[in-house]
Amino acid sequence: MRALLQRVSRAAVTVEGRTVGEIGAGLLILVCAMQGDDDDKPTALATKIAKLRIFRDDAGKMNLSLRDTGGAALVVSQFTLAADTARGNRPGFSTAAAPEEGRRLYEAFAAAMRNEGIPVATGEFGADMDVSLVNQGPVTIWLDI
Questions:
Q1: So where are the chain's domains?
Q2: Tell me: the pLDDT tens digits for 3-50?
Q3: How much is the pTM?
Q4: In the predicted model, what is the mean pLDDT of residues 105-111?
Q5: Angle between the 41-51 and 99-115 helix axes, to the nearest 10 degrees?
Q6: 30 contacts: CB under 8 Å, gap ≥ 6
Q7: Cα–Cα distance, 119 to 96 (Å, whole number)
Q8: CATH class of the 2-136 domain in this structure
């Protein structure tokens, strides 16, 4: 699985003008299931993210995890993280998992984040979404598990 994390002071996702998920302080997690991902990947990714120390402590150092801060996660499916731009000008997405498998792994990832004790809001799988955020730092981290 592939994820792009953005530390946010707030984030929201809307579909056709209605808010489907929103959080205050925490992480916006754009996530993509890749071909060949197995059932262990969502849990491994959730565990890594919940423990990742990318939030400021009292001394201003990135030393606290999402768990430590009590922050939330907004989990949004984004198959375009699988973009292959090596040839030509139009990205290819053939390394992304098939839609049915992508949905299953995406939902398993959101459940695994909840199992880590993180409050989770989600986007709508497969929908045309508008995502808004205030990136704090800015801190943006790419993860491949």
A1: 2-136
A2: 999 999 999 999 999 999 999 999 999 999 999 999 999 999 999 999
A3: 0.95
A4: 98
A5: 40
A6: 3, 4, 6, 76, 77, 78, 81
A7: 27
A8: alpha beta
Active-site residues, by number, are 78-80
Q: What are phi and psi of 134, to 5 degrees?
A: -120, 105
* CA–CA separation, 131 and 117 (whole Å): 24
DSSP result, 28-83: EEEEE-BTT--TTHHHHHHHHHHH---EE-TTSSEEE-HHHHT-EEEEEE-GGGG-
Instruction: Decide: helix, strand or coil at residue 116.
Output: coil
CA atoms within 13 A on the CB side of 108: 18
Token pair listed for 135: 């990136």
61-102, pLDDT tens digit by residue?
999 999 999 999 999 999 999 999 999 999 999 999 999 999
Q: Identify which of 25, 6, 33 has the alpha carbon closest to the alpha carbon of residue 68.
A: 25
